[in-house]
Amino acid sequence: MIHHDPKIWGEDVHAFKPERFLDGIAKATNNNPTAFMPFGMGHHICAGSNFAINEAKITIAMILQRYSLTLSPGYVHAPHPGLTLRPAYGIQIILNAL
Ligand code: HEM
């Protein structure tokens, strides 16, 4: 149920809407600190969370400096819940050099 509760995220809970976080995590979760924990919580919270977030930011920035991205027409939207939510058939992206 974590990250999938419509009472927290709204009826469009399963839609990919990164703009939910535009005004920060506290606002997106109605100030509910246990509603969003992609790196776990407590004593065993992910030891690599800061590294992972920085790595993701640097990687995304480097890609966006060089390419524009469009979703391939062949993409099939099929979120698959596991430990993390994953696209069942991958995400086919077309990269156009800027
Ligand atoms: C987006 C990337 C990542 C996500 C979403 C993620 C998520 C998680 C989650 C959910 C846990 C379990 C926390 C718990 O049991 O409450 C965990 C544990 C852990 N993660 Fe990550 N992780 C990521 C990247 C990394 C990286 C890059 C490293 C190391 C460089 C790392 C090292 C660890 C370690 C060592 C633990 C075990 C912590 C413990 O049991 O004390 N993780 N991670």
Supply the helix-strand structural class: alpha+beta
Instruction: Give the rounded overall mean pLDDT.
Output: 92
Write out the distinct hetero groups bound to the structure: protoporphyrin IX containing FE
Taken from the alpha-carbon principal axes, the silhouette is globular
Terminal-residue CA separation: 41 Å
Order of helices and strands: HHHEEEE
Count the DSSP helices: 3
Strand order of the largest sheet: 1-4
Summarize the amount of helix as a percent range. Answer: 25-40%
Main beta sheet: 2 strands, antiparallel
Indicate the proportion of strand residues: 15-25%
Number of strands: 4
**Rg from Cα:** 16 Å
In terms of per-residue confidence, which ranges show pLDDT below 50 for 5 or more consecutive residues? Answer: none
Quaternary form: single chain
What would you say this structure looks like, in words?
- It is a single-pass membrane protein.
- Heme binds at residue 46.
- Its cofactor is heme.
- The protein is an alpha+beta fold.
- 27% of the residues lie in helices and 16% in strands.
- It contains three helices and four strands.
- It has helices spanning 6-9, 25-28, 49-66; strands at 67-71, 79-81, 85-87, 93-97.
- Strands 1-4 form a two-stranded antiparallel ribbon. A two-stranded antiparallel sheet has the order 2-3.
- Strand 2 and strand 3 form a beta hairpin.
- The longest helix is centred in the middle third of the chain and has 18 residues, at 49-66.
- The chain is globular, with a radius of gyration of 16 Å.
- The structure holds protoporphyrin IX containing FE.
